[in-house]
From TrEMBL:
The keyword Transport applies. CDD domains: F1-ATPase_delta. It is a peripheral membrane protein. The gene is atpC. Coiled coil: none annotated. The lineage of its organism: Bacteria, Pseudomonadati, Elusimicrobiota, Endomicrobiia, Endomicrobiales. This is ATP synthase epsilon chain. The keyword 4Fe-4S does not apply.
Length: 138
């Protein structure tokens, strides 16, 4: 199977860089799978898990927000948050969820509620990814 390059960036730096035969992304319009030779595309990245098939196995990256650019058989992902799913701690996620819920109940300013809800959604995605919970198909 033909391979192509992928790079995933977050504010903390490069999260993944390497060759892949296929990669699946959560987008605002559903999950897309990219293979070698995919048409050029720029799309919004949704919260969820990127699944990368490499020669050494499947890699899973938990992401939250950002965009995907596919140009000339190269895939670039810029995410607001990205981390290897197996590095996510269940305890830290639960603490983040509890903290966000606590902050949401105490603060009523619009901007703070928006930020807190965003953090809560990210933590829920982290929890699902870190625990290997699969989404139900509708």
């Amino acid at each position: 199977m033909n391979k192509f390059e992928i790079e995933i960036l977050s504010p903390e730096g490069v999260v993944f860089k390497g060759e892949t035969a296929s990669v699946s992304f959560p987008t605002t319009r559903g999950t897309i799978t990219v293979l070698s030779g995919h048409t050029n595309l720029v799309t919004k990245l949704n919260s969820g898990e990127i699944i990368i098939e490499t020669t050494s196995g499947t890699k899973k990256i938990t992401v939250s927000g950002g965009f995907i650019e596919i140009v000339n058989n190269n895939v670039n992902v810029v995410a607001e948050f990205a981390a290897h799913s197996d590095e996510i701690s269940r305890q830290k996620i639960k603490q983040a969820i509890d903290h966000a819920k606590d902050m949401k109940s105490k603060r009523k300013e619009f901007i703070n509620i928006y930020v807190i809800e965003s953090q809560l959604k990210k933590s829920a995605v982290d929890l699902k990814s870190g625990l290997g919970i699969k989404r139900k198909k509708i």
